[in-house]
Amino acid sequence: MKKIKVISTLLLFAAFSLPAAVSAQGPRAARLSEKEIEDVREAAVFPVQRVALYTQFLEERSRKIKDLTGRPKSGARVLKMDDTLQDFTALMDEMASNLDQYSDRHSDIRKALKSLTEATPRWMSILRAVPGEPGFDLSRKEAIESGDELSEQVKRLLSEQDAYFLAHKEEKGQERNDDQQAAPKPPSN
């Protein structure tokens, strides 16, 4: 009888605390290593380099997802897969934000976009090959949605940039950043 009360109490506690824990979670920020953080900081004013870094980070995470897909099912694998999928999604979302920002500034990021157009189908095939499991199915679906959005964004931006730089040939190759935009123009004589 005591065991039933303890189990009932634990189940009630879990039932009431789980929704609060889930609703308290907002959009997750990507987990980057100290070296990755430093690399991103150093590339802050170089859009092509920064996009290339995020592409590299996503490539590494996609390999980890592929590796975890082939491992035997276990609780630890489910947790690692869920965590890696969430990290992958957060990185794609951060990449999308960076792309929006660079596009608004008319930074010439076509070179980085071309490598992204090659990488995104590969990432999407890895994500779609992951079999759905209750422990990470939601994270998998969110990663696929984010990947589809990023893929569409990259195609659209590449097309827009090609058209923009065709019309503005003098701006070709510029990597605009906040420092360049905020700097006062020298007086003309």
Walkthrough of the structure:
The chain is 75% helix and 0% strand. The protein has 189 residues and is mainly α. It has one domain: Glutathione S-transferase Yfyf (Class Pi), Chain A, domain 2, CATH 1.20.1050. Helix 3 runs antiparallel to helix 4 and helix 3 runs parallel beside helix 5.
Salient structural properties:
mainly alpha; disordered C terminus; 189 residues; Glutathione S-transferase Yfyf (Class Pi), Chain A, domain 2; 7 helices; 75% helix
Structure summary:
The protein is an all-alpha fold. Helices cover 75% and strands 0% of the residues.
The CATH class, by name, is Mainly Alpha
Detail the poorly predicted runs. Answer: 6-25, 177-189
Biggest sheet record: none
Strand segment tally? 0
**Helix percentage:** over 70%
**Which structural class best describes the helix and strand composition?**
mainly alpha
Radius of gyration, rounded? 22 Å
The averaged pLDDT comes out at: 81
Shape: elongated
**N to C succession of SSEs:** HHHHHHH
Strand content: under 5%
Count of spatially separate domains: 1
Q: Termini, distance in Å?
A: 93 Å
* CATH fold assignment: Glutathione S-transferase Yfyf (Class Pi), Chain A, domain 2
- At CATH's second level, what is the architecture? Up-down Bundle
How would the blueprint of this fold be written?
Layout (H helix, E strand, L loop, with lengths): L1 H23 L9 H9 L4 H23 L5 H30 L5 H20 L7 H31 L10 H5 L7
